[in-house]
Amino acid sequence: MLDIKYLRENFAAAEKALATRGDAIDLSGFSVLDQRRRELLSEGETLKAEKNKVSALIGKTKDKSQVQGEIARMKEVSAQIKGLDEQLREVEEQLSELLMGVPNIPHEKTPVGASEDDNVEIRTWGEKGSFGFKPKAHWDIGEDLGILDFERGGKLSGARFCVYFGAGARLERALINFMLDLHTGEHGYTETLPPFLVNRASMTGTGQLPKFENDLFHTEDVDLFLIPTAEVPVTNIHRDEILAEKDLPLCYTAYTPCFRKEAGSHGRDTRGLIRQHQFNKVELVKFVRPEDSDVELEKLLSNAEKVLQLLKLPYRVVDLCTGDIGFSAARTFDIEVWLPGQECFREISSCSTFGDFQARRASIRFRREGAKKPELVHTLNGSGLAVGRTLLAILENYQQEDGSVLVPEVLKPYMGELEKIKG
RNA sequence: GGAGGAGUGGCCGAGUGGCUUAAGGCGGCGGUCUUGAAAACCGUUGAACGCAAGUUCCGUGGGUUCAAAUCCUACCUCCUCCGCCA
Q: Protein A143 CA to nucleic acid B41 C1', in Å?
């Protein structure tokens, strides 16, 4: 959510900045609602002050017959207050609906652009391997080795589900443990294991609701949602809290499965592990002081890159433009891994800063040493990494001509020292 | 799922319609004393909105009343017991 005061005082600038996102954002109702709200508030509060004063007087008067006139008048005033409060509630609801639907203002460093074609590649790492044969796509490698079974995934659940077997299942588990150990052991993150189902308030806090309910799986008998990313439960850990400055930055990592409807992507990436309704991810989440958020984003990004470097998987980093960043994000770097089987780079991590956008929605604040007033924190998060996509990148990059797949050096301890996955 | 009980400030906890501007304690912060510390003593200590006066917040939403932490109501959460269960 944007700062209502900022919007009031910098309306034109905000509108202009939001326009760089591309899609039309209607802020036209804001000024009228904002002004109406303040009028109702002031009118109601004047009456409440009067009511409080006279009620106290009535309370002090022993002989109530002397104050019958006041009592009758206050009855009238109470009714007026009730009416004003009702109007205020309606105006605030409309205002909140408007504000909750407005995306974040892009960071000043976010490149301006209309679509993903305007994203800026900022670096590449590693050598694309040269194969003496035509590299296969991971769905063929996985099925040939008997470690991925998309057909049975379909039988059990439907399209975009998969069953892992044997060394494939173990490789997924190895990657989760490897990533968590790296981030907790080397990068200073605290491991958390949050709920995979969350309530409406949590989804609203991070920005999935109210706008993107269609993308979420929802439970029928109780009003809960399956998390689309660990960002949601982990960021909401500190919802409605005031943190101590000395505890910042707070850095958490979490493994969770993620559930996405992928509404609107019918026909895209239908084969393989790229776009599943359920996938595993190790997430990194930070709560930081505003002045530290740019530096912390760089660190977060390098923490995610480290995973690919240790796995020796080639990748590039892309600075997303204003037209391509997500609803809540102010700035986003995507890490894209090289997939030789498909001869393209595919997103494997998305590292974002949200500024105070999520913190305001979720009311996550901190108090500076010695300060009286709390301030909003900045929140950041990034994948470190998407596990299914990492597994498929390993299959494609480590495949051998005979159809086997070498196990990356750093994963061997997690794979019982297995050297190679064979059919 | 059934039967009871309970939700008050950072924490504990008093408060059963107006004298609550939420007692008291703990913790935090500042001070006195001290070479320094501890102890003791004194003071101070929530948030939101509003230019301000002021208003609101005692789990959440409704209601009763001139007046609600307090009464009614629905919901949520936690605790105890029973049942079921990994």
A: 79
Nucleotides of B under 7 A from a protein CB: 18-19, 47-56, 62-63, 65-67
At A52, list the tokens: 């409080």
**Parts of chain A with a pLDDT under 50:** none
**The two three-digit tokens of residue A88, written as one number:** 């205020």
Cα(A286)–Cα(A300) distance, integer angstroms: 8
pLDDT of residue A255: 97
- Verify whether residue A346 is a known catalytic residue: no
- Domain housing A363: 116-421
Question: ipTM > 0.85?
Answer: no
Whole-number mean pLDDT of chain A?
92
Pair (A62, A208) in one structural domain: no
Specify whether A147 is located in the same domain as A80: no
User: CA-to-C1' distance for A249 and B35, Å?
Assistant: 39
- Active-site residue, selected from the candidate residues A202, A328, A350, A352: A350
Q: State the CATH number of the domain containing residue A255.
A: 3.30.930.10
Those residues whose C-beta lies under 8 Å from the C-beta of residue A345, and which sit 6 or more positions away, are A315, A316, A336, A337, A338, A339
Residue A45, CA: closest nucleotide via C1'? B55
